[in-house]
Amino acid sequence: MTVSKKIVLLCVLVLSLKTFSQGIVTDRPDQTESSITVGKNDFQIESGVLYQKSDHSNSFFGPSTLLRYGFTNGVELRFVSQYESTKVGLEGGDISYSGFNDLEFGAKIQLLKKETINTEIAFLSHVIIPTAKENLTSNRVGVVNKLSISHSISDKIGLGYNIGYDYVGKQSWLTYSAALGIQLSNSLGFYVEPYGEWGESNNFESNFDVGFTYLVNDNFQLDTSYGVGLNNDMQYLSVGFSWRIQHFLVKKR
Q1: What is the pLDDT of residue 235?
Q2: Residue-by-residue DSSP string for the chain
């Protein structure tokens, strides 16, 4: 299936759905983390599956799950877990491995949010714990850091971008992403996004993805996305959901 046919398929899948009102704000399916934290005492599950094909390997990720909990207004706690199954083609024979990747624990802190300013800023940081088995772990503690900035261009168009610095063991790299989101209806959203990274050895990786979100109700959202490498041989296709549970663990009177 060609790239154009895959994009058309995504459009058909999402446009066949109904419309509802605006609600939940998520960090998936794009690579750009939002500059908004979940509400105090709210619990949010963001999960999905992804198939990725590159030059010498095929990988299936799923479930890939992000858990977010609103600790206070403007501060959320985060947990990331991901299962991976990969097959690598080598001259001496194929190698396959599967299992859970290293776990991540972290937080997102909102630094700027004012009704009179159309710019929001948040800082996100995760600690990577080497819990996975061989071939799926770096065997070293690492950190993922991102500064997330967003601007409201109009009532239906928004721009968000991230600048990040990751460090695992003795290796580090810079990351970037910029997502332009368009609200097509009360429930249907669309985005386009360039993203990539720059490593210590001056290796620059550039990618591009597009995706749709569909709001089932104020607390539940479906999504689908497709990405491709611009200077590398990579393609991926992903589907997923996000579910917000408001006032989690708070007793109702």
Answers
A1: 98
A2: --HHHHHHHHHHHHHTS---------S-SSSSPPS-PPPTT-EEEEEEEEEEEESSEEEEEEEEEEEEEEEETTEEEEEEEEEEEEEE--TT--EEEEEE--EEEEEEEEEE--TT-SEEEEEEEEEEE--S-TTS--SS-EEEEEEEEEEE-SSSEEEEEEEEEEEETTEEEEEEEEEEEEE-SSSEEEEEEEEEEEETT--EEEEEEEEEEEEEETTEEEEEEEEEESSS-EEEEEEEEEEEETTTTPPP-
